[in-house]
Amino acid sequence: MSAAKIKTIVLALAALFLAVSIIAFPKVSVDASLSGLKLWWNVVFPSLLPFFIVSELMIGFGIVTFIGILLEPIMRPIFKVPGAGAFVFVMGLASGFPAGAKITSRLYEEKKLTKTEAERLASFTNFSNPLFIFGVVAYGFFHQAALGIVFALSHYLGNICVGLFMRFYKPYERSFSKKERTTPVIFIKALKQMHRERIRNKQPIGKMLGDAVQTSVSTLLMVGGFIILFSVLNQLLARLHITDSIAYGLKHLLLLLHFSPVLSKGIVPGLFEITVGAKSVSSLAAPLLQQVIVTSFILGFAGFSIQAQVASILADAKLSAKPFFLGRLIHGTASACFAYVLFQWIDIKQTNNQVNAVFESLQNHAVTGTWISYIQIGSLVTLITLIIYILTKAHTNMKKI
């Protein structure tokens, strides 16, 4: 039997298993769906939408071209990607998954990246949201804000390691980008190129903004579908005790690494969804250092839910997701190693009181307050945006008729 036929049978059986499980456990499925929908509706949609829209506008106005020319001398020798990759890196870091993949695909469609450069760039420009790392994981789950420094640094350094590793992905492929020197002339050249880019894009600002909103909402609807699907899958696997079986197998690996075997109960759900995994690990009776290392791995690995989201976005642009999947393994492993070193280097007990005091003073303001604000007004933002999206789509379809 050919590999293609085996793949077809496996996929068909997986879909059948999921359908039968949903029918067999309707309450579990509905509760998990509502949980995933609530997360997407209140937090994911309103937090990612502004970044998606702004990135689309910055590409249309030529700002990405400007940044790309300026930072070409830095990004090209280090990561073997154009200077525009710096824009993707920063936007991905600030907004979280899967913004890096979304913006990378957009730049590839605009022919600002080659196929290899886009696949290479997507592998190391997807991050967990810093607000999520500090406000939710460190302060909310572990109740130790100082751990946010360890989680964040290990997460960012781990992704940089992925970028350095991925520079060897298809190393002999030539690029159409030219090497630039860091001279004052390059700034003027960047300004001129940005102006040409804006002039070349003859769309009115209103049309550009409308397209940016529609594209962003379409992507976020897909993201919401994956969040709900994997929330249901995670709960069904737990109900069928498949999660426990996988965790039992992981116990032997943890024992070889001299880790507490109880951590396997948090790793398995973390392989599917990072929020559930991080929360599970924080509640287990295990040494804090081991909890931090495992959580850092989960944040870097990103979970199958986010990996599926990124794979779907890259597939729409006809880009391979294999470098991204490999990057998640490297990112998780590197982050875990960095977490071990940083935990030893940073005196958590000494700095924790100071950092916690800062977090408590900001609880209703910049950090925790911002996250609470997302939850409080997120549903309203999502509802208004979806109404506008539906009306715009209906208007467009009426014009075609």
TrEMBL record:
<keyword id="KW-0472">Membrane</keyword>
<keyword id="KW-1133">Transmembrane helix</keyword>
<feature type="transmembrane region" description="Helical">
    <location>
        <begin position="371"/>
        <end position="391"/>
    </location>
</feature>
<feature type="transmembrane region" description="Helical">
    <location>
        <begin position="253"/>
        <end position="272"/>
    </location>
</feature>
<keyword id="KW-0812">Transmembrane</keyword>
<feature type="domain" description="Nucleoside transporter/FeoB GTPase Gate">
    <location>
        <begin position="43"/>
        <end position="141"/>
    </location>
</feature>
<protein>
    <submittedName>
        <fullName>Sporulation integral membrane protein YlbJ</fullName>
    </submittedName>
</protein>
<feature type="transmembrane region" description="Helical">
    <location>
        <begin position="48"/>
        <end position="71"/>
    </location>
</feature>
<dbReference type="InterPro" id="IPR014226">
    <property type="entry name" value="Spore_IM_YlbJ"/>
</dbReference>
<feature type="transmembrane region" description="Helical">
    <location>
        <begin position="149"/>
        <end position="169"/>
    </location>
</feature>
<feature type="transmembrane region" description="Helical">
    <location>
        <begin position="326"/>
        <end position="346"/>
    </location>
</feature>
<dbReference type="Pfam" id="PF07670">
    <property type="entry name" value="Gate"/>
</dbReference>
<feature type="transmembrane region" description="Helical">
    <location>
        <begin position="292"/>
        <end position="314"/>
    </location>
</feature>
<dbReference type="InterPro" id="IPR011642">
    <property type="entry name" value="Gate_dom"/>
</dbReference>
<feature type="transmembrane region" description="Helical">
    <location>
        <begin position="83"/>
        <end position="101"/>
    </location>
</feature>
<feature type="transmembrane region" description="Helical">
    <location>
        <begin position="121"/>
        <end position="142"/>
    </location>
</feature>
<feature type="transmembrane region" description="Helical">
    <location>
        <begin position="212"/>
        <end position="233"/>
    </location>
</feature>
